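A favour, since you know our structure tokens better than I do. What I am after is a single protein written out in full by you. Could you add the entry underneath, on a fresh line?


***
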Amino acid sequence: MRHVHRKELLHDHLLLSVKGQRLDGKWGSIHTLALHENTVAASALYNELVAAEVCEALGLATEPRTVTPGRRPVMEIAGVPHELIRWTSRRSDQIAACLEELEHEYVTAVDDDGELKFLPVVSEQARAKLNRIAARKTRPPKQKTQPLAQLRAWWKTSAILTSGVPVDIINSLLEYARAAAAATRTGSPRPIPMGRLRPGARTRGRGSGRYPASS
């Protein structure tokens, strides 16, 4: 199911049956624990396939971006300003803030005798559980379904007003991303739109540099 919501990114949901057909033709219950243990891997694979299809259809490319130092980079569409990506991450910021509070409560919780209930360091397993709690606590109430065209208009307006990305870049984002993809494939320096240059900075190479030509 494709889910379109004003305060969330466009995303898909998948409903899996707990019944499956074995190699001998008989039907039985699926080992749900194995499904649960591979949820993250399945989600990552799905995201990779979607990104590959989008890039092929629109002439784009992906590039690694470090979100958290020391952790594996995530793949993003080349040429999309990081400020715009941050604008779409407000939900993640809310979860992260709530998670920080929950972790503090976790490491400072005491029993009736005043002794710490848990270890002073949050384990990966405990952090995963706390992250799910934070996601539930910060989840906004569901709103009435709106047409996709209306949502896209609202997303664009919101990005122009609150992301900090110049309006001309947002209006020509596809062309800019295509040029970045072409530069990524050829290894040439990526053009920088004038709206993102610091005062006194100069462009490198072609023309005014205000907008890269689409490939």
